[in-house]
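Technical annex, item 7. During the second reporting period the consortium partners agreed on a shared format for inverse folding records so that results from different sites could be compared directly. Each record opens with the tokenized structure and is followed by the designed sequence. A conforming record, contributed by the partner at site C, is shown below for reference.
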């Protein structure tokens, strides 16, 4: 099994959920709504789930062994961290573009 694509959408909220991810496996199967959650011990993922009539949540899709869960979690969190770093640089890049435009306008 190879995870061929990971997409992360940041969630702006006051709770522990930081983002929602989708993974594509072997370019043929997609799992949506994987939640990236922050805890006291760091980030972890929660697989897509539904609420049962008695109020508990059951995973809809999930790995059947620890090694696969750890692999998916590591890859999704790495992609989330990469996305966070890219978003930190984006304001700096926008400021540089604005400064360049201002310089060009004053030269004209």
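Designed sequence (site C submission):
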């Amino acid at each position: 099994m190879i995870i061929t694509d990971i997409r992360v959408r940041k969630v702006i909220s006051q709770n522990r959920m930081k983002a929602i991810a989708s993974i594509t496996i072997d370019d043929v199967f997609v799992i949506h709504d994987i939640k990236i959650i922050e805890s006291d011990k760091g980030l972890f993922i929660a697989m897509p789930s539904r609420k049962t009539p008695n109020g508990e949540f059951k995973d809809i899709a999930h790995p059947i062994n620890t090694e696969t869960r750890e692999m998916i979690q590591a890859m999704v969190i790495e992609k989330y961290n990469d996305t966070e770093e890219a978003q930190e640089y984006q304001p700096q890049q926008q400021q540089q573009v604005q400064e360049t435009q201002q310089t060009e306008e004053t030269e004209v």
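The longest strand covers residues 29-39. The CA atoms of residues 95 and 101 lie 10 Å apart. All partners now use this format for quarterly exchanges.
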